[in-house]
Every structure is written in structure tokens, then in C-alpha cells.
Amino acid sequence: MHETIKNLLNIETKVKQKFQKSNFDQVPNIIAVSKTFKIDHISPLIEHGHIHFGENKVQEAVEKWTDIKQKKNNLKLHLIGKLQTNKVKFAVKLFDYIHSLDNEKLAKKISEYQIKENRNLKLFIQINIGDENQKSGINENNLENFHNYCKDLGLNIVGLMCIPPFNNDSEKYFNKMEKLKNNLALKELSMGMSSDYLDALNYGATYLRIGSSIFGSRN
């Protein structure tokens, strides 16, 4: 058995054990964050039957995933990195989920290209939950207005996403994210990575973005 499959199975076991002790009604999806890895390193997971994969950069994803997604149309590709407006037309064609919606200009551009391509992506609003200058995301105080703007555009906002401050108490930010999600009556929460995904489960995370614990260190 390939090492990546062993790693994934180990994570799935931990998630299920944690989930069984919780009161949540939705088993979380594990996004295998495959950015920077070539497709031959990812293929064992695809053949194993895993369907959720995450990429940071549109151009890398286009080169890596276009052909294989045409052959395996059950795969779900998630854009978890920042999306520039000049890359939206490519992202809308390829991705099934965008986790990094963070401004009105981007929302409008996604809406326009979805109409052109007859697609309806599942979108997460990224929250700058630690109010960090170097990170993208909507300030939580602007969230309700931005959410309404996206709904007026007809965008399919399924949930919220965050990247908590590094080397900090992730749980207090996860707790805040859960409250923000509930305030908007959204279903999904994209949060939790290799270092803190079990903590994220305590606060209703439904999409876990896990890279190094599955694929090992980056090339």
C-alpha cells in the first residue's frame, strides 16, 4: 500500500473516532492538499478512490488536473489559495469549490464567468479571523454585508473558511468561526489543517484541508 494511502487511512480513522464522540450530523470531508506535488505522487490516492483535492495556484492546477478530471469526472477540485481576478475564467472552468472568496470585485467576476460557462461552483467566504495584515479575507464585521452582496449576485455561498494565526490558539478562532457560520445559517466550515484538524472538529468543521500529514514534506 502506498504511503499516502496509509496516511489518509490513519487520518480518516482519527476523524471518525472524533466524530463519533461529537453531536455533529455531517462526517467531515478530507481535502488532500496536493499543491506542489506532481500527479504521479497523487495518483495512488485517486486510484484508492479519494475524490477531494486542494490546490493553491490556478495555473499549476490547470496543467496538472485538466486531463485527469476529464477522465475521472467524480473528482472534486478545491481552490484553497488566493484567487486573482485575471485567473477567474480558468478557475471557474476547472474547480468545483473556491475557498478564498474575499472581495466584491472577485465575487462579481466569478458571477460573470459562471454565467458564461454555465457553472455553479460551491463557494466559501474567507474570513481574516485573526485580523492579520498579511492575510487575505473579509473582516468579520463586514461579513454580513458581503454575504448579502454575494447572494444578490446569485452566488452559491455554502460556508466560511479561515486560516488561524500561526502558533496561536486555533480553537478560539474555530469557536468564533462556528458562531459566524451559525449567524448566517450556512452549512459548511472549511478549517483545520495537519496541525489542528482534530481541534477543528470540535467546532463543526466540515472540510479539513490536510497536506503534509498525507503527502509528507513539500518538494
Write up this protein.
By secondary structure, the chain is α/β, with parallel strands linked by helices. It has one domain: Alpha-Beta Barrel (TIM Barrel), CATH 3.20.20. 44% of the residues lie in helices and 17% in strands. The protein is built from nine helices and eight strands. It has an eight-stranded parallel sheet with strand order 7-6-5-4-3-2-1-8. Helix 5 links the parallel strand 4 and strand 5. The longest helix is centred in the first third of the chain and has 18 residues. The protein is globular, with a radius of gyration of 17 Å. The two termini are 22 Å apart. The mean pLDDT is 94.
Major sheet strand order:
7-6-5-4-3-2-1-8
Structural class: alpha/beta
CATH architecture level-2 label: Alpha-Beta Barrel
Helix content range of the residues, please? 40-55%
SS strand fraction: 15-25%
Number of domains: 1
Number of strands: 8
The CATH C-level class name: Alpha Beta
List the SSEs and their pairings:
Blueprint (H helix, E strand, L loop, with lengths): L2 H18 L8 E5 L5 H10 L3 E4 L2 H14 L4 E4 L8 H7 L2 E5 L2 H14 L4 E6 L15 H10 L4 E6 L7 H14 L4 E3 L6 H5 L5 E4 L1 H4 L4
Parallel strand pairs: 1-2, 1-8, 2-3, 3-4, 4-5, 5-6, 6-7
